[in-house]
Every structure is written in structure tokens, then in C-alpha cells.
């Protein structure tokens, strides 16, 4: 492994540019993951059980999509200077188009046409998002080979990902919800204004593209791998699959990611529904988001020192165990549908989110380490393909999470459409469902990092020493 000597040293431009990359992805991803389910169930009128099938089909499609695009990124250089930047720009343009398509006002279409539109739009969006996210994620391994610099990139990526989530959760509820008195009950309900999501999608998608463009201008690729020549086609895919599944650290990190994304990141709509049906005050959704991200602010301030002292694995195992215990306690916490109960609810979320926050801040450095281990083991430069496989499982977990939410909502009595009149205990059931899926996600991630992921403190120290000495495996 060697660095390009003609490129400026690693610095703030790379950190800022890399943060902007996930910010650009996030403005599309967070909008879709937070509001697409609500848009199709509450405004367009798709049945919850049918929506779950749509998500599972689209994620099965992603199985082929991710692997194919990952192989194309590794083997087809569409730009003269960079392996990754042209793919990011191409994907960014298509992401604008299909992000807008998802939120098209098709409520007057026949049910079969609505169903087909939702499925096709989400599949096309998945292709566009993969074209951006796979090369962007692969960049982490080639911006720098220094472990501490990779940790800083992972931290800044988490900042970039958090900003769209905070904006979407704080600003959008004031735009996309109306307080309407239900004529059947006389109770004021929070109603989704689905027609507002199309202009929101247009603005956010265009902004996302320009942020991604900023990434291509600020980030530099420094690491050149003296690797074996990659095969192409089916042979390359099978080689990457073998490298992925024989890398125990990658398998452990991926299982933890599936739990984190499926049962934390992809269930944000349940938090919205807790405020919609339990607290009956969507204006306060932003407070829950701030409370949920409070642990991230603390973690980002100390993540470098903590990982250096404890190691990434030990830190994650400890915080995920705390999150699991917090989830169990939250199910029995005295949460009432008033301001006091809202404070208790937010405190419970802070405890639950601790382990997930640490994981989200450090996961990209962990995956870069896993890819490095694979390179040292096989001698093949498969960053794009390995990241694509990892990305596939991330996106599959998004589908799993949304399907779990849809089936869970159906089980507790939710009905699609704008005429749904919830039972008196529906809000409490939504709150319990949310705590259950969060606690389950924390438990699975804890088990995966504790018993499968095998890069401990000792291995990290040896890896750091070898990298510092310029050792090539």
C-alpha cells in the first residue's frame, strides 16, 4: 500500500467533504425512511400488510442491485481521474428524479396502480441511492490508511448523517401535519398533509445533489492498493461474496448493522406516531429528536479517546448492553400522555440510543478496518464490492424494519387511509411497540459485537502498529 505524494495531506477539507457526502445521502434517505411509509399508508391509502410486501420485494431487488453496482464501481472506471467521484455525481442526478417520484400525489389512482407506482418508484430510488452510497462509502478506505484519521472520518460522517435527520424531524412536522378535530370523536387529531411532501422532496433532493457535488471537490483519494487484478462479471461477484463471508469481523459488524438499522434507524415513523397518537402533539417531535441525539453529541466529543483506551469492540459491547437494559426498563416506565410523561419518554430514548449512537459514530471506521483485513488476507482491491455487500444488508435491514413496523401496526389495530379512528389504547400500544423493537435491536447488536466480531483491543493495537510501520500483508 502506498500514498500519492502529490496530493495535499489529510485535513479538514476531507472531513468536511466526507461529512457533506452523508449529508447529501441523508436528505434523501431520511426523508424516505421517515415519511414514505406514513405517506403511502395515511395519504395514498396503501394497506399496511400490502406495504410490507412492497418493501420486502424492493429489498430483494436490491440484492442484485447492490452487488451489480458494487462490481461496476470496482471494475468500470467512468471518469479519468477518480474511481468513485463520477459514480457519486451520476447517482446524485438520478436520486433527485426518483426521490421526487416517490412522493408524487397519486391518491386518485386505482389501488393496483398505486401499488405498482410505490413498488417501481422505490426500486428506482434504490438503484439511484446505491449509485451514490456505494462509491461514497468505499471512499473511506482510500482517503487515508491511518486508523485515527479513519475514526475522525467516521465521526464526521455521523455528523453529516445527523444534520438531515435533525432538520427533518424538527422542521418538517410543522409543515406536513395539521391539527384537525375528528367529527366522530370530537378529539383533535394530528393529520398528515400528504400534498406537502412533494415540494419538500423537490427542495431537499436538489439541495442533496449540490452537497454531494461539494464532496467530489473537497475529498481526495490518497491510498493506492498494489492489488491483484480484479476479475469481472460473475467470477468477481463470487470472489467478493467469499471474501465477505469468510471475514468474521465483517459478518459480526454486518449483523450488528442489520439490528441497528432495522430496529433503530428504520423505525423512526413509530416515534412520529407516538407523538401523533399517544401525546397528540406532533409539534414536539423535534424535542424527542434532540433528546435522542444528545448522546451522540457527548460521544463525538470523546469517541477518539474512548476507542483508543477501550478499543472499538469493548466500547460498543458496554454501551449496547446499557441500551438493552434501558429498553427493558422503558417498557415499565411511568410514561403519561402529558409534558411530564414526554420528559420520561425522551430520557428513555436517550438510554436506548446510547449503544446505537456509539455504533453509528464508529461503524464506518469499523467497516474500513474490515475491508483492510480482507485486502491483507486476499490481496484483492474489492472495496466497492465489499462495501456493496455490506450496503445491501444495510438496505435489506431497512426493508425488514419497515416491514416489522407495518406488521406490528396491523397487529395493534392500525388501518390505512385518512379516516382511521384509533382505539383509546392505540397510542399506548404504539409506544410499547416502539420500545420493544428498540430493545430487541440493541440486544442483537450486543450479541453480534460480543461473540462474532473478532477485532478486539489487542488486534486493534497490532493493526495500528503494523499500519504505522508501513507493513504490507
Describe the protein's architecture and organization:
With 473 residues, the protein is mainly α. The chain has one domain: MFS general substrate transporter like domains (Growth Hormone, Chain: A), CATH 1.20.1250. 75% of the residues lie in helices and 3% in strands. The chain has 16 helices and four strands. The strands form two sheets. A two-stranded antiparallel sheet has the order 1-4. A two-stranded antiparallel ribbon has the order 2-3. Strand 2 and strand 3 form a beta hairpin. Helix 1 packs antiparallel against helix 4, helix 2 runs parallel beside helix 4 and helix 9 packs antiparallel against helix 15. It is globular and about 70 Å long. The protein starts with a strand and ends in a 5-residue tail after the last helix. The model has no long low-confidence stretch (mean pLDDT 84).
